[in-house]
Amino acid sequence: VEADENDLTYFVHYQVKTLTQAYADLKKYIARKNQEKRERLALQREGLTPRQAQIVDWFRRDATSTVSIKEVQTRLGVSNQTARNDMKTVATLGFITELVVNRKERHYIRGPRFEE
Fold this sequence. Notes:
Elements: H1 9-45, H2 50-61, E1 67-68, H3 69-76, H4 80-92, E2 96-100, E3 106-110
Antiparallel strand pairs: 1-3, 2-3
Helix pairs in contact: 1-2, 2-4, 3-4
């Protein structure tokens, strides 16, 4: 038994509220993505490839992350040599710092360039 006599006011109010929230979230998402794109373009102007700019972005988002060559290979779907070359270039520019784990393995952390 309907107590509200089939009044659609609550339904319409809920739908409008939900759509308003979704629109606000979409605007925030688009603004964030545009900012990320501007930052990547700025890095590309410094001579980084889009892939290298993405690596820098990982360290920008997570200041405490440690990344290995194997992880770069997996995340970007590139060969070991390409991953090493990309990390070497990014390290040369000061965005990351190399940590020697053992004779074969190297890990990378956020470099001094982020402090500027």
